C-alpha cells in the first residue's frame, strides 16, 4: 500500500480530481497549504507598493492506493497538474504500514 502526497497549484485541483476519478480513485484528502520551493516566493504589486510574498498558496492532496496502482496515479497526477511553469509542485510517495477503516474495522487493502 502506498500514500501519495502531492502539492499542486490551486487552479489545477478540478482537473486533477477529474483525471483521478477517471482512473477509479474513489477518495482523497485535500488541504489548503502555503509554501515555497526554489522560486522562494515572489514580489507582488498592491496599490502601487511592492511587497514580498514568501509563502505561495498551494493545494496538498493525499491519496492512499494499492501498490500496483501507484505509478498510474503518479503519472496521472503529474500530467493533470502540469502547466509547464515554475511552481507546478511535487509528488511524494510513501509506504503505508497499516490502514484501519474506523466505521467497520476493516484493515489494510480492504480499508482503501
Shape designation: elongated
Low-confidence stretches: none
Radius of gyration: 17 Å
Mean pLDDT: 89
Main-sheet strand order equals 2-5-1-6
Which fold name fills CATH's third level, the topology?
Answer: Alpha-Beta Plaits
Number of strands: 6
Number of separate helices? 2
Reported CATH architecture:
2-Layer Sandwich
Beta-strand residue percentage:
35-45%
SSE order, as H and E?
A: EHEEEEHE
- How many angstroms does the end-to-end distance come to? 9 Å
The CATH top-level class label: Alpha Beta
Major sheet size, sense and barrel closure: 4 strands, antiparallel
Structural class: alpha+beta
Helical percent range?
Answer: 10-25%
Instruction: Provide the domain count.
Output: 1
InterPro entries: N-reg_PII (IPR002187), N-reg_PII-like_a/b (IPR011322), N-reg_PII/ATP_PRibTrfase_C (IPR015867), N-reg_PII_CS (IPR017918), N-reg_PII_urydylation_site (IPR002332)
Family: Belongs to the P(II) protein family.
GO molecular function: ATP binding; enzyme regulator activity
Protein name: Nitrogen regulatory protein P-II 1
